[in-house]
Amino acid sequence: MSPRPDRHTGVDFHFDIMCPWAYQTSLWIRNVREETGLDIRWRFFSLEEINRQEGKKHPWEREWSYGWSMMRIGALLRRQDMSLLDRWYAVAGRALHVEGRKPHRPEVAEELLAGMDLDPGLVAEAIGDPTTGDEVGAEHDRVASRGAFGVPTLVFDDNQMLFGPVLVDPPEGEAAVRLWDLTTGWLEFPHLFEVQRPKSGADIEAIATAFSPYLEARDWFSVQNPTP
Q1: Model pTM score
Q2: pLDDT tens, 46-71?
Q3: Any idea what DSSP says for residue 2?
Q4: ∠ at Cα 146 (47, 129), nearest 5°?
């Protein structure tokens, strides 16, 4: 598919590996990249921090925090090459959200790195380097200070920001590009804040089925804060 002159060519994609919704959206945006050459710049956002309850520890105050520590590994990989973070998110995301494994456990994270032909010792190296946490925290704070409340959050080259699209069964090929064009079409209307499709009982069942590997593998209780 030939590039369209007015089509957006780059985006910061803020994610937390633990989020099943962000993972579905990441599959879609990878398809957009295949079709258009979109430049995806993977950035971090911590659901553990944004949903932290008063009196609970910040994720950086724990020896190991699920999503936070996974992103710290990603930060170390990104210092070498963005493509390594790209692969890490794809592999770890698939492990959790498709295969029902537990990449948020250190020993599983090490196995995944080995499967990527990378040194499993990168897990300990990332956690032993406090600047990886600084890096994750800086990216989280940057978008959270602008009102971001969850993932996926997209930041475009003109600095506009959108949450979503939130979807299951991400489209592929030309359909993925049509959704990209519809999504970026929102940028023309800076005071268009929300369009939402009500979910039927059948929709809820479909979501539960799609997310069943994640639901079985998670070792935490998911906080469901209302959208601001």
Answers
A1: 0.94
A2: 999 999 999 999 999 999 999 999 99
A3: P
A4: 50
What are residue 75's phi and psi, to 5 degrees? -65, -40
CA distances from 39 to 10, 54, 119, 142, 194 (A): 4, 38, 27, 20, 26
Question: How far apart are the C-alpha atoms of 37 and 59, rounded to whole Å?
Answer: 35
Number of H helices, E strands in the chain: 10, 4
For 225, which DSSP code?
P
Kindly give, in sequence order, each residue whose CB lies less than 8 Å from that of residue 150, ignoring residues fewer than 6 positions away. 19, 45, 47, 50, 163, 227
CB 67 within 8 Å of CB 61 = no
Sign of the CA dihedral running 143, 24, 39, 9: negative
What domains are defined for the chain?
15-217 (3.40.30.10)
